[in-house]
Amino acid sequence: MDSKETTLTPLDHIPADIVCASDYEQLAPSFIAADRFAYIAGGSGHDVTLHKNREVFADFSLVPRLFHDVSSGNTQLNLLGKTLTHPVLLAPVAYQALVHSEAEIATAYAAESTDTCMVVSTLSSATLERVAKRAGQERWFQLYFQARDEDTFALVHRAAQAGYRAIVVTLDAAVQTPSIRAMRAGFRLPNDILPANLIHQQASEPPAMPAGQNHIFQCYAQHTLTRQQLKKLIEVSPLPVLVKGVLDAGDAGELKALGVAGIVVSNHGGRTIDCVPASLAMLPAIRQEVGNDYPLLLDSGIRSGADIFKAIALGADAVLIGRLQVYALAVAGALGVAHMLKLLRQELELCMATTGCVSIEDIKATKLHRQLEV
Amino acid sequence: MDSKETTLTPLDHIPADIVCASDYEQLAPSFIAADRFAYIAGGSGHDVTLHKNREVFADFSLVPRLFHDVSSGNTQLNLLGKTLTHPVLLAPVAYQALVHSEAEIATAYAAESTDTCMVVSTLSSATLERVAKRAGQERWFQLYFQARDEDTFALVHRAAQAGYRAIVVTLDAAVQTPSIRAMRAGFRLPNDILPANLIHQQASEPPAMPAGQNHIFQCYAQHTLTRQQLKKLIEVSPLPVLVKGVLDAGDAGELKALGVAGIVVSNHGGRTIDCVPASLAMLPAIRQEVGNDYPLLLDSGIRSGADIFKAIALGADAVLIGRLQVYALAVAGALGVAHMLKLLRQELELCMATTGCVSIEDIKATKLHRQLEV
Amino acid sequence: MDSKETTLTPLDHIPADIVCASDYEQLAPSFIAADRFAYIAGGSGHDVTLHKNREVFADFSLVPRLFHDVSSGNTQLNLLGKTLTHPVLLAPVAYQALVHSEAEIATAYAAESTDTCMVVSTLSSATLERVAKRAGQERWFQLYFQARDEDTFALVHRAAQAGYRAIVVTLDAAVQTPSIRAMRAGFRLPNDILPANLIHQQASEPPAMPAGQNHIFQCYAQHTLTRQQLKKLIEVSPLPVLVKGVLDAGDAGELKALGVAGIVVSNHGGRTIDCVPASLAMLPAIRQEVGNDYPLLLDSGIRSGADIFKAIALGADAVLIGRLQVYALAVAGALGVAHMLKLLRQELELCMATTGCVSIEDIKATKLHRQLEV
Amino acid sequence: MDSKETTLTPLDHIPADIVCASDYEQLAPSFIAADRFAYIAGGSGHDVTLHKNREVFADFSLVPRLFHDVSSGNTQLNLLGKTLTHPVLLAPVAYQALVHSEAEIATAYAAESTDTCMVVSTLSSATLERVAKRAGQERWFQLYFQARDEDTFALVHRAAQAGYRAIVVTLDAAVQTPSIRAMRAGFRLPNDILPANLIHQQASEPPAMPAGQNHIFQCYAQHTLTRQQLKKLIEVSPLPVLVKGVLDAGDAGELKALGVAGIVVSNHGGRTIDCVPASLAMLPAIRQEVGNDYPLLLDSGIRSGADIFKAIALGADAVLIGRLQVYALAVAGALGVAHMLKLLRQELELCMATTGCVSIEDIKATKLHRQLEV
Fold first, then answer.
1. DSSP assigned state of D96
2. CA D227 – CA D207 distance, rounded (Å)
């Protein structure tokens, strides 16, 4: 099956009836082939974690405040010694050619035009170098460890060379259970969807499996990073190394002690195994563990500026946007992604203005209202 | 599009199958064009706050009591030095010509015939002077601040001149996120729906936006009232000034200290931004903050006499009715609004009689039963 | 409209596919005209209280126990100095001719054949004397106070004369808000459905309403019993007087002090006003107030033997069955009611056996499991 | 009705679109006649307990951990002095000929090929001796007490003779209330579905029911085991005796004191009476009662490896799989059951690897995350 045939035609303009960023989620099914949409939208298994990610956000509300002069309000923050214009990052999403022929190049263009930090996936459809030319100053590279350390480090050095400013190592994708929705919809990765960054890598021998050993444990052990590998990466990398896919406070504390530059609290958008808690539910304990000055980001479940506000109020410095990114890309390419980002930021700013917050720090000092606290 | 063409014909009698005030909500869609109904019924965004407004009421129950002689029961209350016959006010609702050709004139007639205090909107379809001729003694004027202070104060003086007894400044409408429902239904304010009170105002220059500034924050700052503006209004106004749109207890305390005559706890019926708590959920803390003798009203979510009882038991002196007002106006004009008000009052009285309350003070001393307290 | 025409034909045998008592609820719509079914099944208003009555039961579970020898198990209890075979009473239900031509006569036959105490309504379709001939030894009479005390006391003396053993005064029916379901279904009491016990009462003048008074409060006051009326009834009545329709613990304490012989905790099956708590939710506090040795019954929401067990474990001595009684009567007349009662009792006995209870006292000493107590 | 006619044809291969063990539940209705499926899938009464069994699992989540070297992970456990490869047992399920012509023989083949301990039902469609030839080393025999002790003990000795290693006495099936679903679907046990183990038993006189006694209590007492009968069995049995169907912590403590070798916490998959708590909800208190070293198993509600993990983390040593066993048998015979077991084990292993557990003991030391703990 040819991927181009099943990609529906994106718009060349912003769709007329978009009120808020999450509307791109409503429109997306008309722009993505059904099997691919199921793959993108679905979580692992029966979507239990996927739904938990959303439900926890609904538990909290924002209390409007009066008389705060918000005219000087802004959404700037410092992250890894740089100033970001706003706390919304584009999450690493693999194989964007699945939904748009320009793939990550279009996304990068949107990132640059909206001053957004883009985190480019190891599994991008366009090479990290091509994406770098389009993306803005603040771009990070998401790293999957390769079978050979030399291949892994080569990716890191390519990223440094291409001007990426940080490495984000994904730790929670060792083994993912498939999505029932995707499987029922008959999704398979098309033959022409390829990882551009890895295409010239030398084929590595699959590691020998010792006889009589348990397959799952061995397989998992081979696909997960050890403390030593992470330490070595931190030593070798010319760029600061963040870690993505943390849900346990103790783990977060250890990562900080190991010299990790920052943590992304994430359950991979509900795509790992279908029995883990919502990212947001684990955030407060992790913030408490790592202290106030340590870079902490969150993904999984963000659909609006209010969600971003809630994540920051509960402990995040910034958030990453995954699915909405893909939906907006599918609907209207670079224009769609830029528009979605602009809407998210406006929604966040309106939440800030309404609650009298003029800075990200003000959000952090805000107490949310919890359902049933009457 | 002409508004008259899309307004369906209201009844000239009370509909036969109305059992309770909230039945007007069921009937309304047959009397209001679909796009206008979506606009009136919808909240901001995805109606999350709209539904929270209702859900919190359902958490509470009234415990019937025996042997209280309720024969002397009444619903009177003192508010701003005046005696009101009952604690149900008509909330300020803009552009009532959207649903009935007689607009606020019909509503005012209903208010007078039922001894109801009507709060007339700055954005009324009929001028405040015309409405004043019909409305009863107890009428208040809802004030939106205008771009020029002189226009704002002119409205206040017109209201005083026309015999209004209080000014209600709405603070929570600085920026409202649109309703997805209304947008999907294609609603736009028709060209012939105009703010009668403002029609002769001199056009004001849109304020210059300083270059390089953040649009949302600036815009918000320009559209929200400052403490100083409110203080000046209180000084200048010959009428007591109340404030509508408060959800935070600290804000309520400050407003009281500033000399505000009373507060309407409100989230604008779920029409501001779609992530704020239910009004009722915030009421008890606000009452605790301002003390027992301070005028406190509530709107957002009231559909029955039991809801009114619950609001008063949780801290309100009185409530304002928004959507039911519009629905009843659409269904049967002045007759409908008067009937709806009569039903609400009867429902409240029946709740009072059932719980052995003979006065609004008795309701305030009543403890509600909370779900799952077994 | 003639009532016979709209009554569907009941079976002359027990329906084949009944597994449990509540199955009569499933079958009933095929045996009762739609408008009548809506009237019987519906609660007041929007059925909020009706649903709360059921939900509270679902919160609790029974924990099975091992090794209790239950061979001597029985369901006997002492109530008002008499021994009842089991704790299931037939609630007073008005106008049973609405669903079956033999009306209360059929029900009485079922009561006798199953050793069930029947509480006959003031508003029965057959006279209390005719019902008494069929009902078993243990029969009670439900009393609505009449406009003239002489008429009220005449009813009490007729009941005593006819061998009824207790009077149950209903206190929660002063004013009932209609059922939306019943109204939408077009229900009106047919002309040929008459209160047989009252048919020869002399018409009484409607009480004069003092001018300028509040209608609802006056009306309520005229239709509710005073403490003095109740005291006088207790003095005059040759039979013990119970009170039905109590939800408040303080009221229960006062009734006991007044000399009332027992209390039925009830919200009239959700038929009074649609904002009161579930009966079961109020039961534990009432039992605590009146002490262990005071007769306490419960109705509203019972559909199974497990529900009866739960009610007793939470403080009731016995329960009354309303809607299931009517459904079974409609489906299969006396046979249906007897079968329904037999099933309920068997279900209760099975719950007792499973939890190792051999007596009603054992149930009272049992701790239920509450959802989410893990 | 002939059972063969109504059994749909099972596959001779693993179905292509199975992602996880619970998918067999989705496929099963295409392989089992509707009435039989209703009987197997349904719980007692209205399926209330059946649903509670599932809901409690959903309350808990697993928190992934980093950097645990899981390469040596395994799922072994010691139970009754034997080493089991994994903690998943096949629950005793009666009359497997209802869904597959090879019945328990196919299941036994799957058990052997996956190193799974099979618990064979007294009511198996194939004799325990025939099943024993196929099942693996670790096989247990589920015992229903027979009317005559000699028949009961004969079964125990046949089981010992055939190499079964333990007896599991089911205590919670004395009286089961039928499933409404099964009844509505018209299910009756077909005439050719017979208990192979009991077919040559001499017919016993039904026990005489003393006149005037209560039928349910007598019947229950006759069908439940006494403490004495259990003690005698333990004395007589050459095999260790476990007990299945315990929900109360006090009962569990007494069983341990009586010399029972282990306990299966179970509500019979929601098939006893429809008002008991979820098995999982009762597990922690029971583990606390019996101490850490006592064999405790759980069934009722397990559908995935995550569920198994949760059960072990909350106190179980191992779990039993009932419905999924039948579904997989119906879909693809021995192959299906083996595949289902393999999937469950892989799912469990993946949960272990994700949470850094390398042994069952590690699971027991893991704290689950509970919904709404934010």
1. G
2. 20
Which of C247 and C136 is assigned the larger pLDDT?
A: C247
Does the CB of D254 have a partner CB in chain C at under 8 Å?
Answer: yes
Which residues of chain D lie closer than 8 angstroms to C351, CB-CB? 273, 275
Residue-wise DSSP of A146-187:
PSSHHHHHHHHHHHHHTT---EEEE-S-SS-PPBHHHHHTT-
- Which chains form contacts with chain A, at 3 or more CB pairs under 8 Å? B, D
Chains A and B are in contact, defined as 3 or more C-beta pairs closer than 8 angstroms: yes
* Longest CA–CA separation in chain A, Å: 71
C with A: touching (≥3 Cβ pairs within 8 Å): no
Structure confidence at residue C371 as a pLDDT band (50, 70, 90):
confident
pLDDT at B299: 97
Q: In Å, how far is A286's CA from the nearest CA of chain B?
A: 25
pLDDT at B197 over 70: yes
Give the pLDDT confidence score for residue C5 in this predicted structure: 44
Question: Could you tell me which of C52, C43, C57, C91 has the C-alpha nearest to residue C270?
Answer: C43
Residue contact B62–C276, C-beta within 8 A: yes
pLDDT in tens, B258-273: 999 999 999 999 999 8
For the residues of D149-216, what is the DSSP string, one character each? HHHHHHHHHHHHHTT--EEEEE-S-SS-PPBHHHHHTT----TT---GGGTTSPP-PPPPPPTT--HH
Mutate to test the interface with D, among C18, C59, C65, C67 (most CBs of D within 10 A): C67
Amino acid letter, residue B48: V
Closest CA to C173 of C145, C139, C197: C145
Q: How confident is the model at residue D5 (pLDDT cuts 50, 70, 90)?
A: very low
C window 62-81, beta carbon within 8 A of D? 62-67, 69-75
Both tokens of D348, joined, read 């469990």
User: Cβ distance D332 to D277 under 8 Å?
Assistant: no
Distance separating alpha carbons of residues C169 and C165, to the nearest angstrom: 13
What stretches of C59-169 show up as alpha helix (H) in DSSP? Answer: 103-113, 128-134, 149-161
Q: What is the mean pLDDT of residues D100-110?
A: 97
What's the rounded Cα separation, in Å, for the pair B253 and B246? Answer: 11
* Average pLDDT value for residue range C33-38: 96
Please state the φ and ψ torsions of residue C123, each to the nearest 5 degrees. Answer: -95, 35
D339 part of the active site: no
Q: How many CB atoms lie within 10 A of CB B72?
A: 12
**Which of D251, D277, D280 faces C61 most closely, judged by CB atoms?**
D277
CATH of domain A23-195+215-369: 3.20.20.70
Beta strands C241-246 and C262-265: pairing type?
parallel
Question: Which of B67, B304, B374 lies nearest to residue C284, judging by beta carbons?
Answer: B374
Question: What are the pLDDT digits (tens) for A25-67?
Answer: 999 999 999 999 999 999 998 899 999 999 999 999 999 999 9
Place of tokens 């009966």: C279
The pLDDT of residue D372 is 60
Quote the mean pLDDT of chain B.
92
Mean pLDDT (chain A, rounded): 92
Tell me the three state secondary structure of residue B170: strand
Q: Is B72 within 8 Å of C281 when comparing Cβ atoms?
A: no
E strand map for D194-351: 241-246, 262-265, 296-298, 318-321
Q: Which chain D residues in 327-366 lie under 8 Å from chain C, judged by CB atoms?
A: none
Neighbours of chain D (3+ CB pairs under 8 A): A, C
Look at residue B66 and give its three-state secondary structure.
coil
ipTM score: 0.92
* Residue D282 in tokens: 């009762």
Q: Which of D174, D184, D276 sits opposite C62 (nearest CB)?
A: D276
